[in-house]
Structures are given as structure tokens and as C-alpha cells.
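lol forgot to send this yesterday, sorry. C-alpha cells for the thing we talked abt
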């Protein structure tokens, strides 16, 4: 008789995948014409990453992709979301493509399709070619035009075989951690520039969407992935509600306003008027940004808890986005972030699946009729092999069970959620944290680069094969 499954089951067509990004896993940073991105420069700048670590080798996916795809197939994954290294395709961020760079992604896509795994391409996961940053980066309008050219090149090369496309991953991080707090590449700390960057990332999404559709079959889906914040006020006091509204505008409205509705929130303009006059929003920009989407990707890890500024709160901001003397929240010095209560991951992020349900239901209302995908969700733990070489991570299994149950509850409540991408397929370079934080379902020994699936990988693979969640205690 078949083994009884958990009562939490999913629609038959639900897509079960895992996600990675180019700079975090590929390595081969100087091969086949690739030139430095802002993350190469940033990670090689003393003091910017934990232990001075970088992605020069990362987990060597560039040379081991066939084995990695075979492992995905062995686990039973139905989809794989990966990103393209812009500087591997266009070393200067402009002009003709380097075919050797594109060939790597052609081979990867072919390998995935041969194993029955659906590829999902993210065009931009934070690794801007350094030459474009030298010319001003995302605060400059020209970068959006260059992105559209790049999108057209990649769409023409892969659009016949890849049906799922994501223009940008977490543009909030690119804009506000890269140009506001400086904890991400390129490490600038300029509040006005961070808001300009946000607008030009929006413009890049819109122009890139149009460029993709000009060269791809109409059946293909174009989306973007937002790390929209679940912002909760400490109390219902009007000052705390106003604080939550301001952070919601800076985290969410600054992107979904123009992308979904063709407007920036008036409250965002008002809150930031002492930082910028928004004169870089030119006639026609909002229409260019407001392209119809085929789907929306949501990335979720933990909620935010805020209040009006409290003078007795000292120390770094408890917003979960790294330590810096500079805030990623322009014009929000009157807001205090609080640690949310509860169990935490190695990132210090509170585990709260209710936030994922809340986020899904919000966007079901915000964009009715638009299919949703959870394009990132996962947890970092201090995983270690046991004496037999096995890696047991029951905390991650419990995390996944809780969050996937929240997804299923949202579907029951009427949300059109089509799939889930676990972050991440395997341990990798975790940006400014170097190799300290392990998000992978597959353990990587960084001295040998040997891959070992953790218990959570087998648990998740079983869920992917059956469409139902095994019990948390399942011995796999």
C-alpha cells in the first residue's frame, strides 16, 4: 500500500523548484570572456565581506553544472530558477554578446530540458557589469537602456527553449542596499542615488519586458521577483501606523506602484521630498514601466516590525539587512525597527510562516488575476555532516513544512499560486556574509566542493514527486 501522506497536498500542476544565482555559484569569473561585475569588485575590497571571501570559485557550478542538474533530477525537482551573469554575456554591459558566455547557458538549458526540468531564467540578480557602474550604475538612466539591450540578446538566444523569464530579482536590494546602506555592491551610501536607482531599475524592468517580448514566442511568461516586505506596526497608535506606511512605501510601493499600477504612491513622494525631487521620472516612464505581467514572483523570509522612532532604542537597526552606519531607508530616520519575537534562523530572522500567507493574499488583492510564484523562500542553519557524512537538518524541514503549508492555505483561500522555488539548491556564497551562512538543501564541502544532499533535500524531493508534504518527522 502507498505510504500515507500529510493532509497538506497541492494542485497537480503546482511547480516544485529550487533557485540559485550566478555570482553565488558559478565561479569561473575570468573564463570565456567574462569581466568583473560589481560583486567581483566589492568582494575583493577589504572589509566588505566576511573573511574577505568572494565568488571567484564559489561552488564551481560553471564546470560542474551537469552533475548539479543530475542531482536535481535525482531529487525529483520539476523546475530550476537560475540567473544569467550579465558580464559573461556582455563584458562591458553594452554591444554584441560573447557567444562563449551564452553557450554556457545554452548548455545548461539543454541539460535541464533533457532531464525533464523546467528552466526559469532571471536576467539580473545584482551583478551589474563593473563598466556600467563606472559610468554611474543604476542611478543613471542609461543603465536601464543597456539592460533592455541585454534582455533582448538573452531572450533571442534562449527564448525558444525557456518559457519562464524574470527580469529583476529583488530590485529593492539592488537600489537600497547597494546605493543606500552600502552593505551590498557597489557599496555606495547616497540616499538620493538609491531612489534614482529604484526608478531606473523599474524602467529597466519595463523596457526589458518589452525587449524580451519582441524576440520571444508569445507563449513565454515574463515576470519579476520582489522581496516585498510584510510590515507590521508595533501598535495601532497613529504614529506607529504612519511609520509602517512609510516603510511599506519604501519597501513595496516604490516598485509595485509603477509596475502594477503605473504610479508612484503620493505618500512616497511626500515622505522623500527632502531627499529627492523625483525629476528623473520623465514623461512616458510610468507607461513604459507599467507593462502587463504574465506572473509575479514573491520572495519571503521574515516580517518587519516597526514603530515611530524611540529614543531609548540603541544599536544597529533591527531590519535584518546587515550592519551599517548608513540606512537603506531614505527619509525614514523617524522609524524604529524592532526584533520580532520567536525562533530565529542563523541570519537572525524570525521564522513566521503567517507572513508568507499575508504577503500572498495581499498581492492576490493588489493584482487580481495575476498568477503568483514563490520565487525564493528558505532558511540558513549551521549545518554540519555527522560522523557518517550525512547532513541532518530537521530545523530546515520544519521551516519548509510551515511555509509550504502557508502557501497551501493561501491557495485554499483563493490565491493563484502556481509554484515554489526553494532558496537555495545548495550552499553558496552568501553575499557580504561570505560562506558563513548555509541556505542550501544540498551541503557543499568548500574544501573539496563535494555535494551532499541534506535531509531537507530528500524531504523536499519527496514533496515534489508526490505533491504533498511528508510529515516533519519523516525519516528519509
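and heres what i got for the seq, position by position
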Amino acid at each position: 500500500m502507498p505510504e500515507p501522506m500529510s493532509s497538506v497536498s497541492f494542485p497537480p500542476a503546482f511547480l516544485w523548484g529550487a533557485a540559485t544565482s550566478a555570482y553565488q555559484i558559478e565561479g569561473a569569473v575570468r573564463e570565456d570572456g567574462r569581466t568583473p561585475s560589481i560583486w567581483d569588485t566589492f568582494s575583493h575590497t577589504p572589509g566588505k565581506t566576511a573573511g574577505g571571501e568572494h565568488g571567484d570559485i564559489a561552488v564551481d557550478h560553471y564546470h560542474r553544472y551537469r552533475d548539479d542538474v543530475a542531482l536535481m533530477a535525482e531529487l525529483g525537482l520539476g523546475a530550476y530558477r537560475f540567473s544569467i551573469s550579465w558580464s559573461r554575456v556582455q563584458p562591458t554591459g553594452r554591444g554584441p554578446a560573447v557567444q562563449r558566455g551564452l553557450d554556457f547557458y545554452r548548455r545548461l538549458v539543454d541539460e535541464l530540458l533533457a532531464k525533464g526540468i523546467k528552466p526559469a531564467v532571471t536576467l539580473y540578480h545584482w551583478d551589474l557589469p563593473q563598466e556600467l557602474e563606472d559610468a554611474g550604475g543604476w542611478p543613471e538612466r542609461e543603465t536601464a537602456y543597456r539592460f533592455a539591450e541585454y534582455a533582448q540578446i538573452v531572450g533571442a538566444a534562449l527564448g525558444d527553449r525557456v518559457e519562464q523569464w524574470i527580469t529583476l530579482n529583488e530590485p529593492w536590494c539592488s537600489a537600497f542596499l547597494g546605493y543606500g546602506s552600502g552593505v551590498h555592491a557597489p557599496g555606495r551610501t547616497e540616499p538620493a542615488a538609491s531612489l534614482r536607482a529604484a526608478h531606473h531599475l523599474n524602467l529597466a524592468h519595463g523596457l526589458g519586458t518589452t525587449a524580451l517580448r519582441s524576440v520571444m514566442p508569445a507563449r513565454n511568461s515574463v515576470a519579476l521577483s520582489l522581496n516585498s516586505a510584510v510590515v507590521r506596526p508595533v501598535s495601532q497608535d497613529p504614529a506607529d501606523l504612519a511609520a509602517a506606511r512609510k516603510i511599506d512605501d519604501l519597501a513595496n510601493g516604490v516598485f509595485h506602484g509603477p509596475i502594477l499600477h503605473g504610479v508612484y504612491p503620493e505618500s512616497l513622494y511626500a515622505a522623500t521630498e527632502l531627499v529627492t525631487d523625483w525629476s528623473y521620472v520623465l514623461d512616458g516612464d510610468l507607461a513604459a514601466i507599467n507593462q502587463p505581467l504574465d506572473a509575479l514572483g514573491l520572495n519571503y523570509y521574515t516580517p518587519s516590525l516597526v514603530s515611530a522612532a524611540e529614543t531609548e532604542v540603541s544599536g544597529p537597526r533591527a531590519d535584518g539587512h546587515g550592519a551599517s552606519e548608513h540606512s537603506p531607508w531614505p527619509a525614514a530616520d523617524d522609524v524604529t525597527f524592532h526584533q520580532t519575537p520567536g525562533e530565529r534562523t542563523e541570519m537572525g530572522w524570525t521564522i513566521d510562516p503567517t507572513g508568507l500567507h499575508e504577503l500572498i493574499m495581499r498581492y492576490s488583492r493588489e493584482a487580481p488575476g495575476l498568477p503568483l510564484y514563490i520565487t525564493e523562500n528558505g532558511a540558513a542553519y549551521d549545518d554540519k555532516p555527522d560522523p557518517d557524512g550525512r547532513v541532518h537538518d530537521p530545523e530546515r524541514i520544519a521551516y519548509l513544512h510551515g511555509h509550504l503549508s502557508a502557501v497551501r492555505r493561501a491557495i485554499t483561500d483563493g490565491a493563484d499560486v502556481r509554484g515554489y522555488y526553494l532558496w537555495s539548491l545548495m550552499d553558496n556564497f552568501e553575499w557580504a556574509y561570505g560562506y558563513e551562512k548555509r541556505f542550501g538543501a544540498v551541503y557543499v564541502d568548500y574544501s573539496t566542493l563535494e555535494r551532499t544532499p541534506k535531509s531537507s533535500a530528500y524531504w523536499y524531493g519527496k514533496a515534489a514527486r508526490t505533491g504533498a508534504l511528508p510529515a516533519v518527522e519523516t525519516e528519509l
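Confidence is low (pLDDT under 50) at residues 1-5. anyway ping me if u want another try
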